[in-house]
Amino acid sequence: MPKVDEIQKAEKISSLQGELTQLIAAVRTESDEKKKRKMIVKIGEYNRRIDKLKSGRLLSRETKRDIVAYSFIAPNFIGFCVFTLIPIVFAFALAFLEWDGSNPIKWAGLDNFARLGNDIFFKAALKNTIIYCIGTVPLTMVASLALAIVLNQKVVGRGIFRTLSFFPYVASLVAITAVWKMLFHPSKGPINNILYTVFHVAQEDLPQWFSGGLVLLSMILFSVWKYMGYYMVIYLAGLQGISSELYEAASLDGANTWQKFRYITWPQLSSTTFFVVVMLTINCFKVYDIAIMLAGGGSGELTTSATVLVYYIYQKAFIDWDLGYSSAVAMVLFVMVLLVTIIQFRGQARKERA
């Protein structure tokens, strides 16, 4: 029997080698690139099968390498599935269910989404989030780009100023919000004190920075100050990638500073600006900690004028225990971010094609 097996094995190898030879000859004469790529893939498969038959191994070398590679990936992938992927899928499913975390789950269909239209708190949170995004994204982009252009020049103490600009981003949020609340305190803060003593604003007319209509303005200004250092570093990397020869050629043609920025700096930074806008937009839609720290007060609860979508999701889920409805709000937030990102990607692709 072993001899018969060896003869069958040799015949199989000979047959595969014959087919492989024909396939190699066909690849050399094939003009269609797609068909050629498919043939090359088949050649690799034939070589693996022949090698497996000759060696008698159950697993080929490539299969063993794949197993080793996947074994390194597996712990992280399992963690991602357990702690991220499965909760995301469950959250999507929960949007169509009714559940308070203790009683049995009930099917709700589209009822959770129908409630959104009559929920004044959801509308307020949605409006506040959109206003915050519209205010924060362009201001942060302009401030970080201006800072990057200034600190890209050969100025005295450039390294110190770069460090100071980046410091708010890495500093503790609790510490810097405490400082901001002291600076803008309605009665004891130096900002209102300057308005009162220098500009003679009446005591009753002094702004209440962390309540009413000014709370969103305070959040926007704080966000710009905190994050412009991070995006400044990204813009600095983009500026240092621009060839100095372009500026030299523009100078020879008599271009002024504004013309250099308009026709060289800004076009060369288009991909960097696209990245900054996308990241800023996503981060603004996810804002939560800044709102809590600045406008939460001692209780950590936000008023209608400061409520943002992520806080409202938390409130409905873990205070009211309306998990189905909170998941519906989360789905609305997800769709908003997805649509804005898709629009930005398509706009960038259209610009690059032009």
Describe this structure in words.
By secondary structure, the chain is mostly helical. The protein folds into two domains: 57 residues; 239 residues, MetI-like fold (Orthogonal Bundle). It is built from 15 helices and two strands. It has a two-stranded antiparallel sheet. A hairpin with a 7-residue loop joins strand 1 and strand 2. Helix 1 packs antiparallel against helix 2, helix 3 packs across helix 15 and helix 12 packs antiparallel against helix 15. The longest helix has 34 residues. The radius of gyration is 31 Å and the shape is extended. It is a multi-pass membrane protein. Belongs to the binding-protein-dependent transport system permease family. It holds the Pfam family BPD_transp_1. InterPro entries: ABC_transporter_permease, MetI-like, MetI-like_sf. One of its GO terms (biological process) is transmembrane transport.
Helical amount: over 70%
What's the rounded overall pLDDT mean?
Answer: 87
Runs with pLDDT <50, length 5+? none
- How many individual helices? 15
Assembly context of the chains: single chain
Helix-strand topology string: HHHEEHHHHHHHHHHHH
State the CATH superfamily name of the largest domain.
Answer: MetI-like
Under CATH at level 1, the class of the largest domain stands as Mainly Alpha
Distance from first to last alpha carbon: 71 Å
Task: Tell me the overall shape.
Answer: extended
